[in-house]
Amino acid sequence: xxxxxxxxxxxxxxxxxxxxxxxxxxxxxxxxxxxxxxxxxxxxxxxxxxxxxxxxxxxxxxxxxxxxxxxxxxxxxxxxxxxxxxxxxxxxxxxxxxxxxxxxxxxxxxxxxxxxxxxxxxxxxxxxxxxxxxxxxxxxxxxxxxxxxxxxxxxxxxxxxxxxxxxxxxxxxxxxxxxxxxxxxxxxxxxxxxxxxxxxxxxxxxxxxxxxxxxxxxxxxxxxxxxxxxxxxxxxxxxxxxxxxxxxxxxxxxxxxxxxxxxxxxxxxxxxxxxxxxxxxxxxxxxxxxxxxxxxxxxxxxxxxxxxxxxxxxxxxxxxxxxxxxxxxxxxxxxxxxxxxxxxxxxxxxxxxxxxxxxxxxxxxxxxxxxxxxxxxxxxxxxxxxxxxxxxxxxxxxxxxx
Length: 402
Description:
- Helix content is 38%, strand content 14%.
- By secondary structure, the protein is of the alpha+beta class.
């Protein structure tokens, strides 16, 4: 047994024995009421664990790192499994030892010279002020010398996985429900002058009740004025609007609305709308379907140097219904409004929520509050299940309310 593991065992035992002296800090870190008390059986379990430290056998480097954080904050989390690895973070699935609720743990490695990545700082600063049923909740932040761990609510799936699981043939009713929830969360952000800047199916999480939540705010920005100079290296290529593809760094909320249109198309067809491999190919796919932009469709485009340098053919716009036949007339109208070249004409999230496409959901859907507890029953009752062919009936109580 290595000296490192022995030291970790000793350190873990000291931490476990000190449990009674840090109950108040437990409450603070879990963002729970200050009068919360640890149950006696939980404290007894901790004492048993202190007599049998779990690190007294060889473990992998990844498990050792996870166990170290778990030991340091043992009263909060148990690491269960690695879910995925991102560009600057590793995400684990975990469980709170206090509430038994599942959580997602986003562990961000800290470099001694550089500190926390700007994406992590940005995500924390924005999410701590965003409280909405359709935005993932940041429960807690754990800071150690080597890493920063963000504790999020856990959701089972994302929109990409949901599409895969239903054979890329989603119920059109569920397309409408997910689209409405996406717009709800986005409207909440835009009203607070926050741009997401990285909308894609993988960043839209879905829980077992059918709630969809915006996640991964690592590229999000708070804007202080209607337009401001930002980086144009934002938004995954397939969901990036043509103005940003052509080098624009002055943008506002319409940057997100283009991505919403691409996601609506992807839910309705089962495949990405513009799966380009390069910027030029992405623009080519867009222009081939929507038509090569002109001064009439995009004011000022003729003076854009990058646009002129590509020498695109003069494509005529194609009829969208031929490419998205499962969308009804109102759905095609909404899709067209989301995919306008001119950002000044592109529909906003708030206006899109009032679009006739959503009339079939009923008027009371607009009365749902921002609180997740008030809306989860509605999503559960109104989504279609299976392969999108059978409908979950609304209960009698919900019928009276909605």
